[in-house]
Design a protein that fits this description.
about 180 residues, 5-stranded mixed beta sheet, 7 strands, elongated
Amino acid sequence: MNKTDEIAEHYRQIISLLGEDTNREGLLKTPQRVAKAMQFMTQGYDQDPEEVLRSAMFHEECRQMVVVKDIEFFSMCEHHILPFFGKAHVAYIPKNTITGLSKIARVVDIYAHRLQLQERLTRQITECIQRTLDPLGVMVVIEAQHMCMQMRGVQKQHSVTTTSDFTGAFERATTREEFFQLIRS
């Protein structure tokens, strides 16, 4: 039995325990579909975000802030296995090395495609870029809506959670403020 089939069998059992007939026409292929969906939504475990950044690193005498904003993402809350989704805004100030802009978005996706907490996701993106590119500083802000807050529990439909993390040059308030002005524009 391969990994997908094994996951599907567990979902078949869960569906049955919930009181459904897993032989009903509409549910026959559901365990397999859910297994494939979960593998897609957690594919970040099989990817190396640092390698993605290293695959497009270039020496450049650039010390201006590089901002990639409004990076759409989705992830799965590790507490309830329900989605959370939103936008990440990422900035770094190069020392001697830049990377392809799409690689920043790929780093966000790799970490987001794991069972996550928004706080950890924010920190992991920051630390990965800092460790790999060794810039003068990194800042990440994530704004997200959590289905675990909307579908269950407090059921707050329009709440947004914002997290931030920063290193180096972004420890200066003026540098952070410049970043915030750029992501607001």
